[in-house]
Amino acid sequence: MDLEIKGKRAVVLASSRGLGLGIAEALAAEGVDVLLSGRSADRLKANAEAINARGGGRAAWIEVDLTDPACVDRIWEAAQEKLGGIDILVNNTGGPPPGGAADMSASLLEQQFSVMVARVIELTTLALPGMRAAGWGRVLTIASSGVVQPIPNLALSNTLRSALVGWSKSLSNEVASDGVTVNMLLPGRIHTDRVDELDAANAKRTDKPIDTVRQTARAGIPAGRYGDVAEFAAVAAFLVSGRASYVTGSVVRCDGGAIKAV
């Protein structure tokens, strides 16, 4: 299927590894020019070179830390310089530290809100006028299955990513008539370094072998396995495609059936 996005320009946040990188690779394979962003210059440079060597869309990169208040302006300026604008914005951020709701401090909540919520909204607000003027745009925010079914010991993530659900739905209603779609994509247990880190933290917290933790996690997934990054990225690529022009205001799951709610 032709996704009708060849020649489009995409910014993918937190794309030095994991889900962000997988999405950038999937978009480049469809002929989209992509701007990678993240904190590791070495990884970003290597990933951009690998994408460019494969052909398709070209890749550029910017080293940026979302904890830096100036990061949004820097990403915006890099997108103008390296891509000439933004047609597709994939909002993706790293996860906050694990912990329970009763242990959530105001200072940590405010710090993580700035990174996981405020930066996403600020960058999207910058990108929207160009999308609306062009009559075509895609905003896709990567969240977590925890916004539907809270994940134990990830109270910060459950709380902050849920704020983005209300924002995303509200925004989708405001810009749909301008040809801009706004959706959210929820990963379940997709096998990334982040999931390995969470499994290790759970093993330490419960004093269980990590293999036992993983076996228990797989047992709770109807598909019986962790997802693959490429599987997740394919769903993301469709949601930002020309083919998905009538899909907006949606919260889409890619979780192997792990979320128990309807």
Automatic annotation (TrEMBL):
Gene3D superfamilies: NAD(P)-binding Rossmann-like Domain. Pfam families: adh_short_C2. It comes from the Bacteria. Transmembrane segments: none annotated. Belongs to the short-chain dehydrogenases/reductases (SDR) family. This is 3-oxoacyl-ACP reductase. It comes from Aureimonas glaciei.
